Description:
The structure holds 2 protein chains of 2 kinds. By secondary structure, chain A is an all-beta fold. Chain A contains no helices and 11 strands. Chain A is globular. The model of chain A has no long low-confidence stretch (mean pLDDT 91). Chain B has one domain: Immunoglobulins (Immunoglobulin-like, Sandwich). Chains A and B meet through strand 4, strand 5 and strand 9 of A and strand 4, strand 5, strand 9 and strand 10 of B.
Amino acid sequence: NAGVTQTPKFRILKIGQSMTLQCTQDMNHNYMYWYRQDPGMGLKLIYYSVGAGITDKGEVPNGYNVSRSTTEDFPLRLELAAPSQTSVYFCASIRSGLAGNTGELFFGEGSRLTVL
Amino acid sequence: QKEVEQDPGPLSVPEGAIVSLNCTYSNSAFQYFMWYRQYSRKGPELLMYTYSSGNKEDGRFTAQVDKSSKYISLFIRDSQPSDSATYLCAMSRGYSSASKIIFGSGTRLSIRP
């Protein structure tokens, strides 16, 4: 199994450009998450989804959009990129709610985005 | 006020020492508490997972949750240089309708040989 796959691994954007970070998981997990991690900091939740067609805002959703048309895919869209969006983006998934679960979020390898 | 507070460190201790890492939180609805370890340029990986209050031990690692004080801890015994990493606490209410998993800012730990 590939687990959680993120693309691209690295990207440089100019201010005002748009792009989509792709995230795919092959574990049939219902819950998926997008986090950003600034240098030396923890993870901040951007958006999450508890199933296909259902998304919700996290702690820092401004400047981002998501969609969840399938169980496997959870792309993150950046519109009008700004230098403040320079960060490492992690996609993660978990089978279901934490009740009766191991609490283990499976993370992708991260996407390093620089906005100049 | 942040929902989860964690001292960012850095924390440097000699090999073999007992390490104590802590987080406080403000949302009394949190029931699920986790500790993740993150090596440089890698994604976080789960270390410990606890539900509600109490202690949980796994090898050299012990997780404690004190819900009355809204305080969680991770203890590492006989610390090794390979334990050098950033440690992130995470927590959630856990119900399917409120499945946000919130992380602390992480504590950078260095174990000196």
